[in-house]
Amino acid sequence: MAKVLVVEDEAAIADTLLFSLRSEGHEVQWLQLAQAALQAQQESPADVWLLDVGLPDIDGFEACRRLRQFSQVPVLFLTARDSEIDRVVGFEIGADDYVTKPFSPREVAARVRAILKRTQVQEPLAEPTSAQSCGVFVVDQARAQIRYREQTLVLTSHEWHLLHTLLAQPERVFSREQLLDAIGTPSHAGYERNIDSHIKTLRGKLRAVYAEGEPIQTHRGLGYSYQPERA
Question: What is its main location (predicted)?
Fold first, then answer.
């Protein structure tokens, strides 16, 4: 099982999460302040974070930005905010998932399992395989890296799986449900619109490399596809 760091200042919420996660066999550490959590990650890294947005010392978004300066540990945000802009901001700064309060501890535990499953898939293979070219993209499966126009993209696990899925079948239109399956979230969970947020942040990272490009195309009412670009 995994080491989970819960960063939450409300004891009642933390207690329910600790019980649920420990019942699944995880080693769980609870901290109430973001600064302490950032220090703990440097000294004894966790495998996944549950990070509250409304912390008393540093808000969760800023804590995630600082975390991403030295660690790519998966982050699941816990928050009372349910607006689209908050979800977009969370994904843009490197979140892997987003749960709004009130939530079911069992649902959070299931999300942690899904995140850990995706993380394990991304671990390097014992014997490296050669990178594959997809037009202006280069996919290195062994290192879980994708290069765009010779620049390595810094991707969350969701973004990696989404882009890898699209690149594998150029011009094929994938529905949101199919893309949810690609990132390990059951399509019946009702999170289809989260795909839109992930695609938006992914496009932002691609435009930061090449502003004129638009490799990910939207098909209204259908989904998304990868349209190869010229070098």
Answer: cytoplasm
